Amino acid sequence: IDLASFKHSSVYKLDDQYWFQEKSDSFAGQAFGLEVKEILYHVNSEYQDILVFKSATFGNVLVLNGIIQCTERDEFAYQEMITNLPIMSHKKPRKVLVIGGGDCGVVRELIKHLDDGVESITMVEIDDMVIQLSAKFLPNMAKFRNHPNVKIVIDDGFKYLKHLENQNEKYDVIITDSSDPEGPAEEFFQVTYFKLLANALNDKGIVIMQSSENIWLNIDYLKDLLSKAKQVFSNVRYAQCYMPSYTSGQLGFIMATSDASNPLCSATRSFSPEKEAELFKYYSKEVHKSSFILPAWADRTLNGSQ
Ligand code: SAM
Questions:
Q1: Where's the active site on this chain (predicted)?
Q2: Prediction ipTM score
Q3: Distance between Cα 156 and ligand 1 center (Å)
Q4: d(Cα 44, Cα 210) in Å, to the nearest integer?
């Protein structure tokens, strides 16, 4: 797609130097920008607006409804943390469910655990178009989508979990790798969803979800989301990671279980430092622990009594 005509025709309003600006009412008054080298694909799928562009410094970038989902340069931080925090906290994570996850980065991380317990990976993604475009433009993320241990279901993740209410299908770890609440992922940020997650978990099972807002943009939203999770799970924690391509550079996860004896903030299993270095670029057992340590004001607001 020609950059100049895209600039004039699209809702994205690239500036005169062809910079993409991530703007949203949920973080009014600030924006995150990336210089665009080439528009690779733009489509309105059945569920959302999807843009893929080649940036000057962050590689290819996937944008859904105007919000950056991943960039080739820093995606490993998010994918490794949302996957390894629950997987390394669980003693025997055999069956894993991924809700959303269309770029297939979480699946790539789960494949690293086939030797230490993970046997089956089911991913429920609403929009097949995201998977197809990721296969084409984010090949390093989507490379294991056809792996024999991976089952991909094209469906609404909320509906899928609702359907499990009447079945005996349970998971050890459920990872909600969804987009933000504005759009098809709206139902994931509600108490009803946490109840569906709890129902689909094995005893000692662990869930994790990306928490949409971060401590800088809207800490009250996070506090509210944590309190919703606490209505369902007895053991709920907030962890964070550095993500330069998410507005404010920080992103968090809500991690929860009904197993009161699991500390969540330290791994119950670990690899040798050599194996860790072979498998991971961001995650380590030290990073696991440190990701639960928050700046003092955020800790007081999210974990304190006020
Ligand atoms: N890392 C990203 C972030 O937080 O910015 C999210 C990654 S992206 C893979 C999120 C995926 O969730 C998208 O592919 C989107 O289509 C999917 N999704 C949104 N709503 C969904 C729903 N109701 N059921 C299943 N998948 C959904």
A1: 177
A2: 0.98
A3: 10
A4: 24
